[in-house]
Design a protein that fits this description.
alpha+beta; three-stranded antiparallel β-sheet
């Protein structure tokens, strides 16, 4: 596991590693308003480890199979 301070700002890839999910899952939680504590700085999403810990501890994070599968790809076939 990476060495992070609980007050350090981390990017979306680091947040995904910290929580043990894919970056696409984090993006899905943001897009679907799942309450993940995130701030947009310029074009990047930033997170504080302490806020992520509080979010998970509060029970607001839903660890279901569907929550972990936000990387679904829709393929449209045109005939």
């Amino acid at each position: 596991m990476m060495d992070v301070s609980t007050d350090k700002w981390i990017n979306i890839d680091e947040a995904a590693e910290y929580l043990g999910v894919k970056a696409g899952t984090i993006r899905g939680w943001i897009r679907n308003n799942k309450g993940i504590p995130a701030r947009k700085v310029g074009k990047q999403w930033k997170f504080k480890c302490s806020e992520l810990d509080n979010w998970v501890s509060s029970g607001k994070a839903q660890w279901t199979d569907s929550a972990l599968c936000s990387d679904n790809i829709t393929i449209r076939l045109e005939i």
